[in-house]
Amino acid sequence: MLEPSNNNELPPIPGKRYFTIGEVSELCDVKPHVLRYWEQEFPQLKPVKRRGNRRYYQRQDVIMIRQIRSLLYEQGYTIGGARLQLTDTAGRGNGKIDMNVIRELRSELEDILKLLDS
Question: Which CATH class is domain 14-117?
Answer without folding.
Answer: mainly alpha
